[in-house]
Specification:
The protein is mostly helical. It has a single domain, classed as MetI-like fold. Helices cover 73% and strands 0% of the residues. The longest helix has 37 residues, at 50-86. It is found in: Cell membrane. It is a multi-pass membrane protein. Its main location: membrane. It comes from Demequina capsici.
């Protein structure tokens, strides 16, 4: 039965890849000039061929996802550690329930909350970042206005909302990994005179290292494919800009497909599916890399 289930997963994965490749091939095999005649957003004379636009979107997707991961990972590990080893049992049970509930909130709700509540709150902080740390390319203000985006619809806002969305996923998995730490390991560390934090460093973290990596990569996969929250928050643009406080600079593959799909003709749909194929490959590579890292790290954990 397990062999059948594993084989079915591989068959479904191959079927999805075949579908994407088959439907994307008409756009991939068509020249930029011919494609521009049928697709309005393909503009080779402005540096926007299908491959160039896809490159911009891959950059934006990875940049925003990495921002989200940098924010979410330490917070998630801290929350999971508090629930598993510091909080009283009743409080830990309540927090665990809330974390699981947050993971079930639809992304459109996060998008509405981000656009209506978060953006006005973080805008003064962005102004401070631009005036104080504007010499760093990441926080540089717009050279034409000398200020950061007045709307707050920038890559950093999208990254913050994505971080809030993936925190429940990373926390839930990491919490379960921490709870699986053998009690004998923890008690042995405490018996040697270690403090609780030293016990966590010597017993819990080494045991859960591979699980933390797996949870982080799971959160990254969730961030890479997010659509509606990004679509509702980000002021879209196409560039290879590192300025995360400037609007109209970035977009993601999923958000761009959602915006262009309703008015796309048959050729346009084929071009959008080609972008979906790129996202499929990126997600597959991320999961393969995570699997490789986990398999290497597992031999050094307490799991074996």
């Amino acid at each position: 039965m397990s062999t059948f289930a594993a084989s079915l997963i591989l068959i479904l994965l191959a079927a999805v890849a075949a579908f994407l490749l088959t439907n994307a091939w008409p756009a991939l095999s068509m020249g930029s000039a011919a494609l521009a005649e049928k697709v309005s957003w393909i503009k080779p004379d402005q540096g926007q061929s299908l491959f160039q636009v896809t490159g911009y979107l891959i950059f934006g997707t990875v940049l925003i996802s990495v921002i989200a991961l940098l924010i979410a990972t330490p917070l998630s590990i801290g929350i999971a550690l508090f629930i598993s080893h510091y909080a009283p049992r009743r409080l830990a049970a309540g927090l665990g329930y809330i974390i699981d509930l947050l993971a079930a909130v639809p992304s459109v709700v996060y998008g509405l909350w981000g656009s209506m509540v978060l953006l006005p709150v973080v805008q003064p902080f962005y102004q401070w970042l631009g005036s104080t740390l504007g010499w760093i390319p990441l926080f540089a203000p717009d050279p034409t206005t000398g200020d950061v985006s007045p709307t707050g619809r920038v890559a950093l806002s999208a990254g913050i909302v994505l971080a809030i969305m993936i925190i429940p996923i990373i926390t839930a998995v990491t919490r379960e990994v921490f709870l699986q730490t053998p009690k004998l390991h923890e008690e042995a560390a405490l018996a040697m005179g270690a403090t609780r934090w030293e016990m966590i460093r010597m017993a819990v973290f080494p045991f859960g290292r591979s699980g933390i990596i797996g949870a982080t990569m799971l959160g990254l996969g969730r961030a890479l494919g997010e659509t509606m929250a990004i679509y509702m928050i980000l002021s879209s643009g196409l560039s290879f800009s590192w300025n995360i406080l400037q609007s109209g600079k970035h977009n993601t593959i999923a958000s761009y497909i959602a915006g262009q799909f309703p008015e796309a003709n048959q050729t346009g749909v084929s071009a959008l599916i080609a972008m979906g194929l790129a996202l499929f490959v990126i997600t597959l590579l991320v999961n393969m890399a995570a699997r490789w890292v986990v398999s290497r790290r597992s031999e050094f954990s307490g799991a074996n």
